[in-house]
Design brief:
One of its GO terms (cellular component) is plasma membrane. InterPro entries: ABC3_permease_C (IPR003838). This is Putative ABC transport system permease protein. By secondary structure, this protein is an alpha+beta fold. The chain has 4 domains: 218 residues, no CATH class; 171 residues, no CATH class; 288 residues, no CATH class; 157 residues, no CATH class. The chain contains 25 helices and 23 strands. Strand 9 and strand 10 form a beta hairpin. The longest helix has 54 residues. The chain is elongated.
């Protein structure tokens, strides 16, 4: 067995002769390789940024905290002052650092340590009712400058003095910030009237007033009340915490003044968001869980580790897995459509070379030799184009290009031209002739139909399996790191679009034959000839398939982008509830503020309400829910001025029903609604009567809505702490009227923040880019399909010119042949894309990207009709180009040769 010999002059000659089609195929390879290699790493980079962003937003909830209890105190034993408490805290920091695994330690910032007291009741100071003593270290040093007085010092005569249990309150010196001193009207030398949780009086003295050198130092996060009074408003607790700063000298005095149960020694490790990504999130979450499990619950007084970092990372990985799977749908469409275009380009190249290949075969060229020559030629075209695509992906991207997604594109580019070329050469001299027997010809045609039907059935079954997998499993894998289960659902849109294109392809020749039969009874010859040609050329599957699939996936991507954008806008409305939301300390003055805001220009309505994020609700089971106490008619009018769904059930919240407060409840726990429902408020139960479902507000969690008058009639005091306002100037009016301690949330800012988040922004850009590329590929498929039929069409028109066909009629004939398939493909693709988006919407879990409590409603943009304009425009250009080329043909040459 001899190896095939390569005839390099033939290879070079074909490359030079067909440089135009080969350059076009190379350009498609460059585009497909650049997109397939560059887009997945770009989405991966956005996913890594999303993990970092979500961890950064989690704030202190993501900190890893090491808590070391103090030795227990006994009432009959004396206390000994320990002057080395600050050094002991530093030892705890070192010990904690040794306990953390290396991979987890690499993702954490330098620790910050603190010793904080329990909430101490503060009397005689209107601006604060809770005092917290705190000593903080770490970070960037927690440095301060003393603007009045001096740093806290010791009140003991001896460093290690022993204090008897009946010696009375032990004096402790603290420092206060400038904001705390101004709020509580404190000066150096003043005393704070405080008592411990057992109502025992304490002797707290202010030694000085400080100003932090760096208020953003992470060390201050251990006790935010040290810098300024912190207001906390809830259903069970309403308090303002002020902080008293301890120094290394006064820290031992605080330990003498307070029992060990009321002091917390902790070392906090905040994660470094920039060091967290998809790859490390799984490992770090597992390390956190193992670290927490190793030390148990700390019931025996041993040190404990606690953190929500594992939950934050799991939620981030879930969200990232969702977005990555959604991007895989678009990647699969790009790769498969590009592969179809490459097959179409290879088919056009082989059709152009058919005579040359047949001549080589007649002269004795072997099929293996031709295969080797065509393979070398394919390598010479594909490899440089692939290298250029990879280079473009590397230069334009921020990460190394992917080498997995381009494989199908390069495989088709390498294999399609040689295989189709050898097939054409084999058929040209294979000795196969059309049989004279009619039944034999019918049998061959039936066999060809069966083969085509088998292929179509295979595509249909694959599309059905992919669609079922998408609808049942969804696009999100069960495990965030499992990407193998998302491969089949990712193929669903492309396979369903291909199946729809094959169905339309079956209908196209039937329509052409019906048109031909109808025109046969007429007297006009040219339309009949056009219909006859259309009935033979309309059945060419590949160009029609490319145009239809490209149009369908472009429509799908456009609907996906529009749905995400509208979902983010709706999600911002659900999150804020109005154009602007003000949240401040609960007081009766909030109603006055809402009235002033409602009377301002640019504000349609302003409604005061009490909003508690944690309210205990009990029925057969007990759970927490978000509580909204508002005037029901005003709340209903507020919803009417927003895109949020109206809530006519709010009219049921008037008065009391059998001594119970009517309530609208939303919960996923049916046991909560069984039995007698009650709400815990200010330590007292308030009986509720469920009269309907709560309106869709917030994040979709449990929600209870009651009328303010009914709630007050039941004896519950709930002064408002929130104002919802709608109107173009709602945010600016609330800022002008609000106090310095009020927090204002603007809907437009929330919407902008969600749209500019790394992952949603990457998905939106990917969908828009996919739609653009799909339209370009559909247009290229139209051009290649027209080029494939152009020689035969030109020959027919040239013969008709000898019979008196005018140029205008020739252009109409070309348009009549090309326009109906293009219009059917564009219209069918547009409908398929919209139906695909509607079918797959619930399986895409877009709510994880848009931030809505439920999946968004489908949004169909006007841009889905672009194929209906673009493809006919492409046909018009092709008609002009073909007319220009045919005009150069001499009539005498047509008469002599009989063709073109």
């Amino acid at each position: 067995m001899r190896l095939p010999r390569l005839h390099l002059p033939s290879v070079v000659g074909r490359l030079r002769a067909d440089r135009g089609p080969l350059a076009l195929a190379g350009a498609v390879v460059v585009l497909g390789t650049a997109l397939a290699a560059g887009l997945p790493p770009a989405v991966g980079h956005a996913a890594d940024l999303a993990v970092s962003d979500l961890v950064a937003r989690a704030g202190a909830d993501a900190d890893l905290v090491y808590t070391v209890p103090f030795e227990p105190d006994y009432a009959e034993d004396p206390k000994q002052r320990d002057p080395g408490m600050a050094a002991t805290l530093r030892d705890s920091v070192e010990l904690a650092g040794l306990e953390i695994p290396r991979d987890l330690a690499a993702a954490l910032q330098p620790p910050a340590a603190s010793i904080t007291s329990a909430d101490l009741k503060l009397s005689g100071h209107g601006a604060g009712d809770v005092l917290q003593l705190a000593y903080v270290s770490g970070g960037r040093g927690a440095r301060v400058s003393w603007t009045a007085g001096s740093a806290p010092g010791t009140t003991a005569r001896e460093p290690a003095v022993v204090v008897p249990p009946d010696s009375g309150p032990w004096p402790v010196e603290v420092g206060v910030s400038e904001q705390t001193a101004a709020a509580l009207h404190l000066r150096p030398g003043d005393r704070l009237d405080a008592s411990d949780p057992l109502q025992r009086d304490m002797d707290i003295r202010v030694s000085g007033v400080f100003r932090p050198v760096d208020p953003l130092d992470p060390a201050w996060q251990q006790a935010p009340g040290l810098l300024a009074p912190q207001a906390y408003v809830g259903a069970l607790v309403r308090r303002t915490v002020v902080g008293g700063l301890l120094s290394p000298t006064s820290l031992p005095d605080a330990r003498v003044a307070l029992d060990s149960d009321y002091l917390t020694r902790a070392v906090s490790f905040a994660p470094a968001p920039a060091r967290l990504d998809r790859g490390s999130s799984t490992v770090l979450a597992g390390a956190v869980v193992r670290l927490e499990a190793r030390y148990g619950g700390g019931d025996d007084g041993s040190p404990t580790w606690r953190s929500q970092l594992d939950r934050v990372l799991h939620g981030a990985r879930r969200r990232v897995a969702t977005a990555t799977a959604q991007a895989a749908l678009l990647f699969a469409g790009l790769v498969l459509t590009t592969s179809l275009v490459l097959v179409l380009a290879a088919e056009q190249l082989v059709r152009r070379r058919r005579a040359t290949l047949a001549d080589l075969r007649v002269r004795g060229a072997s099929l293996p030799g031709l295969l080797a020559e065509l393979a070398v030629e394919s390598v010479l075209v594909t490899v440089p184009a692939a290298a250029a695509g990879l280079l473009a992906a590397r230069v334009l991207g921020s990460r190394p290009p992917s080498l997995t997604w381009p494989v199908p594109v390069l495989a088709v580019a390498l294999l399609a031209p040689p295989l189709l070329g050898v097939r054409a050469a084999a058929r040209s001299t294979g000795g196969r002739r059309a049989p004279a027997n009619r039944s034999a010809r019918r049998s061959l045609a039936r066999t060809a139909q069966l083969r085509r039907g088998a292929l179509e059935v295979a595509v249909l079954l694959a599309a059905a399996a992919a669609l079922v997998a998408l609808r049942q499993r969804g696009v999100v894998p069960v495990e965030p790191d499992d990407v193998s289960g998302a491969l089949l659902p990712a193929l669903a849109p492309t396979l369903v679009a291909a199946t729809g294109a094959l169905v339309l392809l079956r209908l196209l020749p039937l329509g052409a034959r019906l048109a031909r039969g109808w025109l046969r009874r007429g007297t006009r010859t040219v339309p009949f000839v056009v219909a006859a040609r259309a009935s033979t050329t309309a059945a060419r599957p590949l160009p029609f398939l490319v145009v239809t699939v490209g149009s369908a996936l472009a429509g799908f991507a456009l609907c996906l982008a529009a749905t995400q954008t509208s979902g983010q806008a709706d999600g911002a409305w659900f999150a804020v509830g109005a154009d602007a939301q003000l949240h401040t300390q609960a007081s009766a003055s909030v109603r006055t503020l809402a009235g002033r805001a409602a009377g301002s220009d640019g504000v349609r309505i302003a409604v005061p309400a009490r909003v508690s994020d944690v309210a205990l609700v009990s029925g057969t089971s007990t759970g927490s829910a978000r509580l909204v106490v508002a005037d029901a008619p005003a709340f209903e009018r507020l919803l009417a001025t927003t895109p949020l769904p109206d809530a006519p059930q709010l009219a049921r919240l008037h008065g009391l029903s059998g001594g119970r407060v009517p309530a609208l409840v939303r919960t996923a726990d049916p046991a909560l609604l069984r039995g007698k429902l009650a709400l815990r408020w200010d330590g007292e139960p308030v009986a509720l009567q469920v009269v309907g479902g709560a309106p869709p507000l917030g994040d979709g969690g449990p929600l209870v809505v009651v009328d303010a008058a009914s709630f007050a009639a039941a004896g519950a005091d709930a002064p408002p702490d929130t104002v919802w306002a709608t109107g173009p100037r709602a945010a600016s009016v609330l800022r002008r009227l609000a106090g310095p301690d009020a927090a204002i949330t603007v809907r437009e800012a929330v919407q902008h923040e969600r749209r500019t988040s790394p992952l949603p922004q990457a998905l939106l850009r990917l969908a828009e880019l996919t739609a653009t590329v799909m339209l370009a590929l559909a247009l290229l498929g139209l051009v290649l399909g027209a080029a494939a039929t152009a020689p035969a069409r030109g020959q027919t028109l040239a013969r008709l010119r000898t019979l008196g066909l005018r140029p205008v009629e020739a252009r109409r004939a070309v348009a009549g042949e090309l326009l109906p398939p293009a219009l059917l493909a564009a219209a069918g693709g547009t409908v398929l894309g919209t139906v695909l988006a509607r079918t797959a919407l619930r399986s895409l879990s877009l709510r994880l990207v848009t931030g809505q409590p439920s999946d968004p409603a489908l949004a169909v943009p006007w841009t889905v009709v672009v194929p209906l304009v673009l493809l006919p425009a492409g046909v018009a250009v092709l008609v002009v180009v073909e007319s220009s080329l045919r005009r150069r043909q001499k009539l005498g040459q047509v008469l002599r040769v009989g063709g073109t």
